[in-house]
Design goal:
It is built from seven helices and 13 strands. It has about 260 residues and is of the alpha+beta class. The strands form three sheets. Strands 1, 2, 3, 4, 5, 6, 7 and 8 form an eight-stranded antiparallel β-sheet that branches. The longest helix is centred in the C-terminal third of the chain and has 24 residues. The chain is globular. The protein starts with 12 loop residues before the first strand and ends with a helix.
């Protein structure tokens, strides 16, 4: 399990002041000369192609500039809270901002070999007791969401098994993904599984939150596949995922008992 004390950043991650805020960036990926414009779609539009990404809690842009394929996401509220403020959050310190927390978690997960996007930069702008935030990530090449894949054809049994094992690996590390759904699971051209959108994700001790994660994914699949042919998501598919997840739980418990 990854612990809070272990998910700090390495020496290659630097922090730079911004107008009214600050930015973290990984100089091993971006170089030493940080640019505030990295967190602005207008800045990138002057250097390449910028297009809006699919719907989600945040506003996201897909960027193609020089040899860079990136995703820039602006943090936005969802649900009832969006009626109060679309993209402003209460200030509780730089380390508690949505962007810094997601950057640090993704950074540590990548170092540990987890299939997540590579974070490049994250920043915030503070105005009194509120702030706005953005994060810049490397785009995962050749990936499509689980929902998109199911829209084309049923998944092979082996992919449901691999998805169950992948989720188990995150849970065993104590990673609580706050919005695991059919759009935040990606598959690449080699059918490798990736998870994205770690906004509000955090590290937790074992608990019922892992069951809630699975329930959220199950509910998302049932809702999104309701309009698709019935063979795209079946009870047998879910049980294949669940059996693989639970067998991973048994292995983790056995390894812990043997220590």
């Amino acid at each position: 399990m990854i612990t809070d004390g272990a998910w700090g950043t390495g020496s290659e991650v630097r922090m730079q002041p911004l107008g009214g805020g600050a930015m973290l960036y990984d100089r091993s990926r971006t170089g030493n000369d940080a640019q505030e414009g990295w967190l602005s779609p207008q800045w990138w539009a002057r250097r390449g192609t910028v297009r809006a990404a699919g719907a989600g809690r945040g506003s996201a842009w897909l960027i193609d500039a020089a040899d860079h394929a990136l995703v820039l996401r602006h943090y936005r509220r969802g649900g009832l809270m969006a009626r109060l403020s679309v993209d402003r959050y209460w200030w509780r310190g730089a380390g508690a901002t949505r962007s810094f927390r997601e950057f640090r978690l993704l950074y540590q997960l990548r170092r540990a070999g987890f299939p997540v996007p590579q974070p490049l930069a994250a920043g915030f702008h503070r105005e009194g007791s509120r702030y706005t935030a953005d994060i810049l990530l490397e785009r995962l090449p050749g990936t499509r969401s689980l929902y998109e894949r199911l829209g084309e054809a049923p998944l092979q049994f082996s992919l449901w098994v691999e998805l169950g094992r992948a989720i188990r690996r995150f849970v065993a590390a104590g990673v609580h993904h706050a919005d695991l759904n059919a759009h935040n699971v990606l598959l690449d051209a080699d059918d490798r599984i990736w998870l994205i959108d770690f906004d509000r994700a955090r590290l937790r001790a074992p608990g019922l939150w892992s069951d809630a994660m699975l329930a959220r994914l199950h509910g998302s699949l049932r809702k999104e596949c309701a309009a698709l042919p019935p063979d795209r998501f079946t009870a047998a598919d879910w049980h294949s995922l669940l059996d693989a997840y639970l067998s991973g739980t048994a292995r983790v418990a056995g390894a812990a008992a043997g220590r």
